[in-house]
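Re: [ENG-882] Designed sequences occasionally contain unexpected residues at chain ends

Forwarding the minimal case from QA. Structure tokens:
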């Protein structure tokens, strides 16, 4: 979207990226409750840990992007950083999330 010249294309891709990002998000909240040997206390602990780490990382990323905008007077480095961060996070999630056999239906 950074390098498109027509605003209509930027708007279309902005809507599509928002849709694709939000499609998987609701399923994520069910993960702790679908683990084997889980209970409400453990699910709450997992989700509170997730949100704490998420907001700490979010704060750091906002500082990094703000710093890059202040130094370069452009959002290009900040957007590029966020794009790379999304790609790295997608690959890292393959190692962080529990494997299929840790879930209730995974052992069958």
């Amino acid at each position: 979207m950074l390098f498109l010249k027509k605003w209509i294309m930027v708007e279309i891709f902005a809507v599509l990226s928002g849709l694709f990002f939000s499609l998987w998000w609701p399923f994520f909240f069910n993960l702790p409750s679908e683990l084997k040997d889980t209970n409400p206390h453990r699910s709450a602990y997992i989700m509170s840990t997730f949100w704490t780490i998420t907001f700490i990382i979010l704060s750091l990323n906002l500082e990094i992007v703000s710093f890059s905008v202040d130094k370069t007077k452009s959002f290009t480095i900040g957007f590029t950083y966020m794009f790379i961060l999304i790609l790295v996070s997608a690959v890292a999630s393959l190692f962080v999330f529990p494997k299929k056999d840790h879930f209730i239906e995974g052992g069958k």
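QA comment: On inspection the terminal residues look reasonable. The mean pLDDT is 83. Proposing we downgrade this to a documentation issue.
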